[in-house]
Amino acid sequence: MKIIICGAGQVGRGIAERLAVENHDVTVIDISSELVGAISANTDVRGIVGHGSHPDVLNEAGAAEADMIIAVTFVDEVNMMACEVAKALFNIPTRVARVRDQSYLMPQYASLFTRENTAVDVVISPEVAVGEMVLRRLALPGAFEAIYFVDEKVLTLGIKIEEDCPVINTSLSQLSGLFPDLNAVVCGIVRDGKLFVPHSGDQMLPGDRVYVISDRTQANRVLALFGHEERPARRVLIGGGGTIGTYVARKLEERDPHIKVTIIEYNLARAEQVADELDNAVVLHGSALDATLLQEAEIARTETYIALTNDDKVNVLSAMLAKQHGAATTSCLVTSLDARPLVSPLGIDSYIDPRSVTVSSILQHVRRGRIRGVHGVEAGEGEVVEAEALETSPMIGKPLREAELPDGIRIGAIVRDDEVVIPTGDTEIRPNDRVVMFALRDKIEEIQHLFRVSIEYF
Fold first, then answer.
1. How many CA atoms lie less than 13 Å away from 308 in the CB half-sphere?
2. Of 52-66, 107-121, 215-229, which gets the smallest average pLDDT?
3. For labelling alongside 121, which of 4, 110, 251, 397 has CA 20 to 30 A away?
């Protein structure tokens, strides 16, 4: 596909890097020559300096032949206007805009982004998406990843295997025999830094990070079986009162008024604004790196500390400091690939990757075939994919053991008539089934082939 990306910041760069790896024809536009130069030098993309909403710049970028425009600058209005120009002058088929300001996304204005009223086909809000990821992890504290598919009927859990895990050194085939009514499948394992899709004879070992696809209703049972029975936190401390931190605090207040939420915000004016917006949360003005302020926030009694500032260094160091001063679990927002290896050695329990969330929301619109959902894991080394099976799919009408599913792909769940089915070798995929599967990055093309719509694939 030929794709134009407006905006070469963290979000735009992350999308461009991923799409370039998949051999798409990518052009990036930004007003900063420095950002454009950096992305052109390090990735196989074309860079243009200019305003992404200007017709002449889009024309230079090849808009007349483009299949998609993704506008992710820091200015919502520029993103929306870029989509308008892309449709009116160049008829680019798919138009995606990043919208950060929550006033555009209020429920009472839902009609704004309909086909009748705007040229924006897809709205992405990374801040909301990251906030929802944080909330899912708070609800399932034993998981370092929690991703929903098929209208939230199916859940993919990322679980760290500790020494006390009841099922270590147990082959996956034995696991199925011991717990035949467990609607869950281990689909991916990270061991010694390498991600692989396991076979039935493989075992889980202490230190492994595993990805399990499960019926959502069995999430807590799965976590308990894998050695995690942590309860959701009742005392949460958030470092950073920006859009994401405030969103998380507001949603926690709405969902459970008994949760004690405290926010530390460095900017005084912002701290005062956040305090006015929230009902019950305590807002403290100061630095999340101030040990005295952490103690004032009762860090020793805090069950979960989450660092959500826009500075990776502050996030990593404050999470480390919170852990040292008694926080039960800690997590931090990390945008830089260079900072991620520091998280575990510093004693931080998990990190949140905002670029992965955003790229995942884009990929489902790039994939061919009936792909309904995509979420990248392990910095894009693997993906969890939701696809709809059609009559033309080569998977239809044969038992899975005869379907010759390639190594590196594992089907975790099938949703049929609103019922979650955990597949066996005898299971047959039928038309209109929604299939959730795990795949290594180099197998994504295979998935598109398996769930292709013939007329568009060829």
1. 29
2. 107-121
3. 251
Q: Which of 238, 293, 242 is nearest to 269 (CA)?
A: 242
User: 354-385: per-residue pLDDT in tens?
Assistant: 888 888 888 877 876 678 888 989 888 899 99
Looking at this protein, which amino acid is placed at residue 81?
M
Helix axes 10-21, 33-42, angle to 10 degrees: 20
* CATH topology identical between 2-124 and 235-327: yes
> Which amino acid type is present at position 299?
I
Measured CA to CA, the distance from residue 319 to residue 361 in angstroms comes to 27
- Place 456 in a pLDDT band, splitting at 50, 70 and 90: very low
**Backbone angle region of 193, left / alpha / beta, with phi > 0 → left and psi within -120 to 50 → alpha:** left
CATH 3.40.50.720 fits domain 2-124:
yes
Listed in sequence order, the residues at least 6 apart from 110 whose beta carbon sits closer than 8 Å to its beta carbon are none
- Tokens (6 digits) for 280: 């019950």
Could you identify the residue written with the tokens 């969330």? 357
Give dist(CA 233, CA 391) in Å, integer: 46
Q: Superfamily assignment of 235-327 in CATH?
A: NAD(P)-binding Rossmann-like Domain (3.40.50.720)
Separation between Cα atoms, residue 86 and residue 245, nearest integer Å: 33
Where does the pLDDT of residue 457 fall: very low under 50, low under 70, confident under 90, or very high at 90 and above? very low
Contact 214, 186 (CB under 8 A): no
Whole-angstrom distance, CA of residue 73 vs CA of residue 76 = 7
CATH assignment of 356-457, given 3.40.630.30, 3.30.70.1450, 3.30.160.150, 3.40.640.10? 3.30.70.1450
Specify the 3-state DSSP secondary structure of 282: strand
Over residues 3-61, the pLDDT tens digits come to 999 999 888 888 898 888 888 999 999 999 999 999 888 888 999 999 999 999 999 99
pLDDT at 453: 55
Query: pLDDT tens digits, residue range 284-324?
Result: 999 999 999 999 999 999 999 999 999 999 999 999 999 99
Residue in 136, 137, 11, 135 with CA at minimum distance from that of residue 76: 11
Task: Give the total residue count for the chain.
Answer: 458
User: What residue segments make up the domains of the chain, in order of their start?
Assistant: 2-124, 235-327, 356-457
Integer Cα distance of 21 and 43 in angstroms: 8
> How far is 275 from 279, CA to CA, in rounded Å?
8
- Give pTM, 2 decimals: 0.85
Q: Residue 355: which of 339, 379, 338 has the closest Cα? A: 379
